[in-house]
Amino acid sequence: MPDSVEEITPEILLRAYAMGIFPMAEGRDDPDIHWVDPRRRGILPLDGFHISRSLARRLRSGEFTVTADRAFSQVVAACAERDETWISRRIQALYERLHALNHAHSIEVWSDGRLVGGVYGVTLGAAFFGESMFSLATDASKIALAHAVRGLKAGGFHLFDTQFLTPHLASLGGQEIPRAEYHRLLAAALERDARFDPAAYSSAAGAAPSGSTQDSTQTS
After folding, report:
1. Would you say 106 and 147 are in contact if contact means Cβ atoms under 8 Å apart?
2. Contact between residue 69 and residue 106 where contact means Cβ atoms under 8 Å apart
3. In this predicted model, what pLDDT tens digit does every residue of 22-46 receive, in sequence order?
4. Closest by alpha carbon to 185, among 161, 166, 164, 211?
5. Three-state DSSP class for residue 9
6. Pairing relation of β-strands 2-3 and 114-124?
7. Which pTM does this prediction carry?
8. What is the C-alpha to C-alpha distance for residues 27 and 220, in angstroms, rounded to an integer?
9. DSSP string, 119-165
10. Handedness of CA 187, 190, 46, 135 (dihedral sign)
């Protein structure tokens, strides 16, 4: 149901996430916010992330540099820069405010000093609500997700919510679960504390992210 009158504050937005709903718009200039609570919810199990052999090689190659919270605004803007987007200017402004409150974060992928991929999301308790990602180079968004999973595990997170399940996410181990099961996992995650430490997500944080390796020819 759209909301075109009430001022949406960061506090209201966080309460919505705690209830299992998230905002969307019908376009970049849509002034309304539509609250969504899907019957089937996408999640990315933190212990079930799949890394293809080609992605594992790329992660080890040193071709990309990965950082966190260094270019939050750029990542959100890049995610919104497509023909059809649910990230309206109003929603983007809300995420900027959440970022200032340390409740929204980004993982960035760089190549030769150029931002070529990334993912951003909202944190609450031990839950990470993945909002959107983008890729301007082969495997860039997958690399961002691999580093996101590693950092979230290190920080004590228990739930990586992807909202919906896409073929891209399914190839990485994403799953689709019923709404009731999602709300159970969400409630458990909200009772725990976790910490988003940008250093844990960077390419300088240690060895390349690990996960179950599978044969795959898909690219981002």
Report:
1. no
2. yes
3. 999 999 999 999 999 999 999 999 9
4. 161
5. coil
6. unpaired
7. 0.89
8. 23
9. EEEEEETTEEEEEEEEESSTTHHHHHHHHHHHHHHHTT--EEEEES-
10. positive
Are the beta carbons of 100 and 73 closer than 8 angstroms?
Answer: no
Q: Strand 212-214 vs strand 50-52: parallel, antiparallel, or unpaired?
A: parallel
Cα gap 140→27, rounded to integer Å: 25
Q: Are 10 and 17 in contact (CB under 8 A)?
A: no
**Listed residue (61, 49, 47) closest to 138, CA to CA:** 61
Q: What percent of the chain has pLDDT over 90?
A: 82
Which helix (H) or strand (E) segment is 37 a member of? none
| Helix locations, 25-68, DSSP H | 53-61
* CB proximity list for 42: less than 8 A, separation 6 or greater: 161, 162, 163, 164, 165, 166, 169, 174, 175, 176
Question: Rounded CA gap, 109 and 63, in Å?
Answer: 10
Coil, strand, or helix at residue 212?
A: strand
pLDDT digits (tens, 9 = 90+) for 99-147: 999 999 999 999 999 999 999 999 999 999 999 999 999 999 999 999 9
Q: Across the strands, what pairs with 213?
A: 51
3-state secondary structure of 53: helix
Alpha-carbon dihedral sign for residues 220, 52, 50, 65: negative
Residue recorded with tokens 């609500």: 129
- CA-to-CA distance for 118 and 75, rounded, in angstroms? 6
Does the domain at 38-84+103-178+185-214 match CATH 3.40.630.70? Answer given as yes
